[in-house]
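Hi all, posting the design record for the shared folder.

TITLE: backbone redesign
STEP: 1 of 1
STRUCTURE INPUT:
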């Protein structure tokens, strides 16, 4: 059976981008793969220092996976920080990751560019953990030999770096040592946020997946559009409302709405209401389950402890194979 692995950073409330980019596609194919889905809590340490905030986000993400249908009996479901083998592997990988690759990582480069733009020193507020983020992510992945990594497009570069470091190690110690992973994207299109840019916590333009219905509607109504009047024909091609609609609708529904756009006579309020309704239809039942389990921390702790306990022996076995190949054990 082929393997699938993905993680979500515990930096905030899960939003529609997490759901569409990782959670929904990962769960859609969970039964065809041996799956590893985890909360990347050590990754969040680079940006979040507040303990309570990290823990709360960790629970929210775990509850979201479960509410969306993850079966912890069938899927390896764990908290990254419960699997120390990942961090040992990260130390190993650091010795093989070309620094030049890390220099080119988008998240690091963007932060440096922002600093320079603002007249600050290039590395202002840049910690080494941010710089080596892709190394830790490669360890998350390579430890479990997944074939595919379901992620949003923004993670493409990270998965490519991971594949690159795996190739270097295979070239040095033997071709079969590590599985070369491939990023798997759900749709060609990025999930756009309230302001029309990529939906991302760092832009503050996200729509939380399990906002109460009223709040969800309010947020959808806030999606930025142009100032065309009700009567004017509208272009579905370059529209955040339509782009989101595509993730929640059938091709027939999309053709219908596209036609309404082009015909004119539909205002933005109406288009957004149509969008809200398809999102609400998809999330309403899941939200109910979420609201129940997010209040039951003992249950969540138990599920995560069980998941970690089951995955650690496998992690150790895989790590031992590498350690042996590299001369740390006989
Ligand atoms: N970088 C991912 C994100 O920000 C989270 C992540 C950490 C991840 N480790 C991973 C994703 C391993 C896939 C595989 O969303």
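Okay, here is what came back for every position:
SEQUENCE:
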């Amino acid at each position: 059976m082929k393997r699938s692995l993905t993680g979500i950073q515990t930096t905030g409330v899960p939003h529609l981008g997490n759901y569409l980019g990782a959670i929904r596609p990962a769960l859609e194919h969970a039964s065809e793969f041996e799956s590893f889905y985890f909360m990347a809590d050590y990754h969040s340490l680079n940006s979040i220092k507040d303990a309570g905030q990290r823990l709360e986000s960790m629970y929210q993400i775990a509850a979201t996976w479960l509410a969306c249908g993850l079966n912890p009996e069938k899927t390896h479901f764990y908290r990254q920080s419960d699997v120390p083998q990942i961090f040992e592997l990260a130390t190993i990988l650091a010795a093989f990751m070309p620094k030049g690759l890390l220099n080119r990582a988008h998240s690091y480069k963007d932060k440096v560019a922002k600093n320079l733009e603002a007249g600050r020193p290039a590395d202002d507020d840049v910690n080494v953990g941010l710089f080596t983020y892709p190394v830790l992510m490669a360890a998350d992945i390579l430890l479990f030999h997944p074939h595919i990594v379901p992620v949003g497009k923004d993670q493409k570069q990270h998965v490519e770096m991971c594949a690159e470091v795996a190739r270097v190690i295979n070239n040095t110690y033997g071709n079969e040592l590590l599985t070369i992973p491939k990023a798997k994207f759900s749709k060609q299109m990025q999930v756009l946020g309230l302001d029309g840019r990529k939906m991302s916590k760092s832009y503050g333009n996200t729509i939380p997946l399990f906002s109460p219905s009223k709040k969800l509607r309010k947020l959808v109504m806030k999606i930025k559009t142009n100032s065309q009047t009700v009567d004017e024909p509208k272009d579905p091609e370059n529209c955040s409302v339509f782009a989101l609609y595509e993730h929640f609708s059938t091709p027939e529904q999309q053709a219908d709405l596209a036609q309404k756009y082009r015909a004119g006579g539909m205002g933005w309020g109406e288009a957004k209401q149509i969008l809200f309704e398809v999102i609400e239809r998809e999330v309403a039942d899941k939200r109910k389950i979420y609201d129940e389990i997010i209040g039951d921390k003992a249950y969540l702790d138990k599920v995560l402890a069980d998941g970690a306990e089951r995955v650690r022996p496998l992690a150790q076995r895989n790590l031992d194979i590498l350690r042996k190949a590299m001369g740390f054990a006989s």
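COMMENT: Residues 5-9, 40, 43, 137, 140-141, 149, 151, 155, 158 surround tryptophan (CB under 6 Å).
Let me know if anyone wants the other runs.
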